Amino acid sequence: MIIAIDGPSGTGKSTVAKSVAKQLKFTFFDTGAMYRSFAWWVLKQQIDPHDEEKVKVALTGFEYQIETDPARERRYIVNGIDVSMAIRTQEISTAASIVAKYPDVRQTMVKIQRKYGALENTVFEGRDMGTVVFPQAEVKVFLTAKAEVRAERRYRELLIKFPDLTESLSFEQILKETEERDRNDMTRAISPLKKAPDAILIDTSYLTAQQVIDQIIAQVKLKQKKTSFSMGIFYGVVYWLARLYLKLFYRLKIYGLSHFRSGSAIIAANHASYLDPPVVSISCPEEVHFLAKESLFRVPVLGFLIRHLNSHPVSRDVGDATTFRLIINLLQKGKKIILFPEGNRTADGQLQPIERGLAFLTMKARCRIQPVYISGTFKVWPPGRPFPKFFGRIACVFGSPIEWEEFEGLEKREAEKQITERMKRALYNLKNWYDAGAKGFPP
Ligand code: DC
């Protein structure tokens, strides 16, 4: 799950986001610290932050790492130097706000943030988390507070952090800088600071941090409850019966579920057996859709079942365009659909080349791909065998999602090539991870 907390500085974002992450046992990611760290790198090389061309060049040498110290505090490391303290000065605040305006800088930062987001449950704190970086975030919060209140908080924070500066700090100056930064952040052409339409708005001016934290946690709990009860009754009953059957007879094991995100996605799996659609759908923790040959809808019992389990008929006669429209439609309604991008079932159980349709659908529907590797179904029910074997061992491994935004702006053919390559790599990586003993967390 991704929780996106946005808002201007001084709204208590960091305190709140850190605490929410701690209480929920999520990872905490402060994206402002990234822009600050980069600004530090720019200044260290004596580059004027206003000089966009030179700042762009500085991006190539920027190496960023986040570590956690023994007190469980985050340490930010730029090219081997711990800058956690140095990035909190007023000078860096101003420079960060300037370099954060440049499209190349944002693109680089967003890529790193999305990579982190795909790894685990995370609370992201920033300016554009809910609008640009994670528009699919399950919980979005936008914090605001009056400029005077924010400047006052910042003033006090600086006095505590840098007591030597007491003489030189003035509240009026900080208020002025706060307003200037707001203007910078809200009016920049790319990813300006704004509330996502589906974010909840909390004015923190007269609330304690705990009150804000409680409101956010309540939202998260509500969302978690909704997600876990999102199955219809019929779907739910068949789901649990099928799950029991697969667990008992095939010792089904599911890995990497924390890679699973809510919202629309193509669940893209390798395909070697008739068992693959049921294995993937019951491994997903929510209702999913899939395609089935039209003729199957006419088979007694099976036809009834699949019709009530979000199956959609496809026929060779109508052509790919109609099928693609059907899939895009489902994705645009926020659904998840299982597809097998290798095309038909394999004849030998090995991974096959990925067809181009997957990339086309991803970019058209602007959705995420959730790669899934299935192991064992080929042994249990290979093509040509009329019925599955009674027993066996099946596993379903969810890999980190591939986000369409990573390919945004690429020429169509190049995007297709890269998505297809990523999907192929994802399946091989998951297979290798599983074959090597399924240790730790799937890639
Ligand atoms: O949250 P902060 O004050 O540490 O952020 C420092 C600067 O980085 C701020 O001026 C805005 C910018 N920033 C951004 O543009 N996008 C983000 N996601 C986070 C911060």
Notes on the structure:
- Helices cover 45% and strands 16% of the residues.
- The protein has 443 residues and is of the alpha/beta class.
- The protein folds into 2 domains: 2-227, Rossmann fold; 232-435, Glycerol-3-phosphate (1)-acyltransferase, CATH 3.40.1130.
- The strands form 3 sheets. It has a 7-stranded mixed beta sheet with strand order 9-15-14-10-13-11-12, sandwiched between helices. The chain has a 5-stranded parallel beta sheet with strand order 2-6-1-7-8, sandwiched between helices. Strands 3-4-5 form a 3-stranded antiparallel beta sheet, covered by helices on one side.
- A hairpin with a 2-residue loop joins strand 4 and strand 5 (81-82).
- Helix 7 crosses helix 8 and helix 14 (357-365) packs across helix 16 (412-435).
- The protein is elongated.
- 38% of the residues are buried.
- The model has no long low-confidence stretch (mean pLDDT 90).
- Bound molecules: 2'-deoxycytidine-5'-monophosphate.
- Residues 9, 31-32, 35-36, 96-97, 100, 126-128, 181, 185 line the site of 2'-deoxycytidine-5'-monophosphate.
Give a concise summary.
With 443 residues, the protein is of the alpha/beta class. It is 45% helix and 16% strand. It folds into 2 domains: 2-227, Rossmann fold (3-Layer(aba) Sandwich), CATH 3.40.50; 232-435, Glycerol-3-phosphate (1)-acyltransferase.
